[in-house]
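[recover] target loaded
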């Protein structure tokens, strides 16, 4: 499996998991709200749409934010696919990412951040400037974002088009 495909696949599955968790939470909430339940299952709201379609959309996602329900409130989740423009591995750790469309963001990294390269846990110090990454982060009370998961697909390949295109620049 190519690194580009692995990054797209990881992003797609993460998006499907988030959407699935939201659907499951909505079903649980609706079930606890009371009322009568239908005797037959309701039809699919969007015939023809499947998890494969959601994975395709997630594979093309460059960056975005969405809100999820959590115990005690809501959380803003930031997702970004791009090239690493900087990492700070001393003191307060962070990673800066620039997407193909020029969107740049910096994410705090802590001991709870899961960093994966080829399915294996790696330290932030193994993530190099120029590597293609997919970052999932949660907004903190100070307005910054804490990276929860970083998937490192390594440097761009010479033969592939790359997950981020050629428009990204360092910050």
């Amino acid at each position: 499996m190519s690194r580009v495909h692995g990054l797209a696949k990881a992003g797609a599955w993460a998006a499907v998991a988030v959407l699935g968790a939201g659907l499951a939470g909505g079903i649980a909430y609706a079930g606890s709200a009371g009322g009568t339940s239908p005797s037959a299952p309701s039809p699919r709201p969007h015939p023809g749409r499947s998890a494969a379609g959601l994975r395709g959309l997630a594979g093309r996602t460059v960056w975005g934010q969405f809100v999820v329900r959590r115990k005690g409130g809501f959380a803003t989740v930031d997702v970004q696919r791009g090239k690493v423009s900087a990492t700070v591995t001393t003191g307060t750790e962070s990673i800066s990412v620039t997407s193909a469309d020029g969107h740049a963001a910096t994410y705090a990294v802590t001991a709870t951040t899961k960093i994966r390269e080829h399915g294996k846990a790696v330290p932030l110090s193994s993530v190099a400037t120029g590597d293609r990454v997919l970052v999932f982060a949660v907004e903190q009370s100070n307005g910054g974002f804490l990276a929860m998961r970083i998937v490192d697909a390594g440097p761009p390949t010479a033969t592939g088009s790359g997950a981020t295109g050629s428009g990204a620049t360092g910050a």
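[recover] notes: Residues 19-39, 160-171 have pLDDT under 50 and may be disordered.
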